[in-house]
Amino acid sequence: MPVAPMLVLPSLQPGIPLAVASTSQASANAALCRFLIASGAVREDDLPDGEADPLKACQRAIDAWIKRQIGPLHCLEPRFAINVLDEHGQHPGMRSGPPAPYAQLDVYWCEYREAEWPVGRSLEALNEAMPQLGATVLQVLRQQGRYVYPLFTPDVADDVASYVYWQGEMDEEAALDMMCEDSDDAEREAMREEMVTRRMLDDAYPEWARRWLVRPDKSAGGRRRTPAWRPCSLRRAARTLTDPHQRQIAADALALSRLTLADDFHPDIEGEYIGFGAVLSWEEGDVTTRIYDDLLNLAHQSDYCDRMGEVLIPLDDPGALQAWFLRMGQRFEAIALIDRLIHALCHGH
């Protein structure tokens, strides 16, 4: 039986581009590349070979430059990205008519691939080595991280559980009242078995992990003064602990606590906020991950924000981008310290 000849699919010569950009767009992209090179954010030899899209090439170059400033990381995977906007703050390609000229650079950062890191045993071991040391390290992580690299910690899990499951209450009873209004006790308990409950959280974390340490108000009278968990001295811990691994954790926490970090680049949040850089569970696979996953599922049903920070850079001022880089210096240092602490806590027990 004769064999039918195989059809040869047409192909483009290597010199023919796969995409065609308008002259005005190509000119705008070239101007953006010149702006980034002039600002010092991108070196010509940083631009990846073979990337046909100038915007993607610049984004990859900026991301690589920033990651060099942060240094090698063990746990975190920050992603820095850019968008170009017109003078109205909109993407030029989304407006009808001819593309508007580029006017602003939207720089933002987020975690590329958040993961679970169990830290409970190490924090408890630190508390045993020195009273409140583990609690103090945890507080430094969440207090400094909230402006730079927000972490999903037990106190956040506690708040999210109240919001997602319990109608804003401290436990599940009010939610069960609503769902089981016409049900008997057996049906109510069956529903409880399927829920995240207050008992689950109380069993998962010690109370100090769900509360912020506070310094007592010295102006309050003796009887009016409320009990408080006092932070321990990280400086003393870094000097006196005998275990070198724990001593290094205390030193890194001390260094992180001393950084001057403010809420300068807070993202414009619309909808649920899910811009967390890591999930710090107590034990691997505990209720923390379930709460976090349910928050993500809820967020993706509507508007959400997964950015950790953002800044708008005017494209008529190359110095503005360099000034932003300088202001980010301590944040880059904080990201490296947060990563080092998570790695040490997760692998130290």
UniProtKB/TrEMBL annotation:
Specify the taxonomic lineage. Answer: Bacteria, Pseudomonadati, Pseudomonadota, Betaproteobacteria, Burkholderiales
Among InterPro entries, the record links this protein to:
PRTRC_protein-F (IPR022283)
Pfam family of this protein, just one? alpha-hel2
Query: How is this protein named in the record?
Result: PRTRC system protein F
NCBIfam families in alphabetical order: PRTRC_F
